[in-house]
Amino acid sequence: MLTVKEAIEQRRSVRKFRPDPVPDECITALLDAARLAPSGCNAQPWRFNIVKDGDAKSKLALAAYDQSFMAKAPVVVVCCADIKGYMEGTVSGIQDLGKIGAVKDRIVKILLDRSEQMESQMKVTSTEQLGGRIAFNVAIAIEHVVLRALDFGLGSCWVRLIDTQMIKDIFGWDDNIYVVALLPIGYPDELPKPRKRLGIEDIVII
Ligand SMILES: Cc1cc2nc3c(=O)[nH]c(=O)nc-3n(C[C@H](O)[C@H](O)[C@H](O)COP(=O)(O)O)c2cc1C
C-alpha cells in the first residue's frame, strides 16, 4: 500500500492500458474511496456508472471527441453529479452538521436559505449551469479514485473533453444527471514521464 505522498508523486495520466480485466474487488475498493470524499454540507452528489462493455466504451470514446485510447481501457467510469440528490443531500447534511454541533445555528440557517434559493433557481437554471456548480464535489471523489487506484497497480486518466449530451443519450439519462468526467482505468502499458509543474513560488499569491 502506498502512502498518500507516494501516490500523489507517482500518479500519471495513463492513456495506454493492458487488456487484463480489473477485478471487481478493485472496482469496489475504488468506489469506496470515492464515497469517503468530502462534499459541501456532506451532500455526496457523486454517482458512477461502471462501463466494461466494448460497444459502450467505443461510444464513450466517440463522445470524448474520438479519444480512442479510452475504448481500450478495461473499465471506463462515467463520473456524474445527481442534481436532485445534491439538493436532498444538502438539506439533510446541513441538519446533521447542526445536530452534531459542527456548525453554529446561524450557519445552519444561512446554508438552509442558500439551499432553498438554489432549489428555486433549479426551475429556471439549465442543468449544465447547476451541474457545473456541483461538479467540484464530484471532482474530489474522482481524484480519490485516481489515487487509490495506484494501490492496485492501476492507472487512469481524467477525460473532461466530452460531449455531455452524447453521453447522456448513450445511457438514456435525463437532465437530473450531469456528466462531470470519464475515467478510463486499467493496468498501465506505458510509464509516462512526470509532466512539467509550476514551482511553489509560482503558485503562492502574495
Ligand atoms: C479536469 C481534467 C480534464 C482532463 N481532460 C483530459 C482529456 O480530455 N483527455 C486527456 O487525454 N487528458 C485529460 N486530462 C489529463 C491532463 O492532460 C493531465 O492531467 C496533465 O497533462 C498533467 O499530466 P499528468 O496527469 O500525467 O501529471 C485532464 C485532466 C484533468 C484534471
Alpha carbon gyration radius: 19 Å
- Basic shape: globular
User: What proportion of the residues is helical, as a percent range?
Assistant: 40-55%
Query: Which ligands accompany this protein?
Result: flavin mononucleotide
| Average pLDDT number | 95
- Order of strands in the sheet with most strands: 1-2-4-3
Give the helix/strand class. alpha+beta
Description of the molecule:
- There is one protein chain.
- Helix content is 48%, strand content 13%.
- The chain has 206 residues and is of the alpha+beta class.
- A four-stranded antiparallel sheet has the order 1-2-4-3, sandwiched between helices.
- The termini are far apart.
- The mean pLDDT is 95.
- Helix 2 (24-35) packs across helix 6 (127-149) and helix 4 (83-99) packs antiparallel against helix 5.
- It binds flavin mononucleotide.
Looking at this protein, list some descriptive labels.
about 50% helix; 4-stranded antiparallel β-sheet; binds flavin mononucleotide; about 210 residues; alpha+beta; about 15% strand
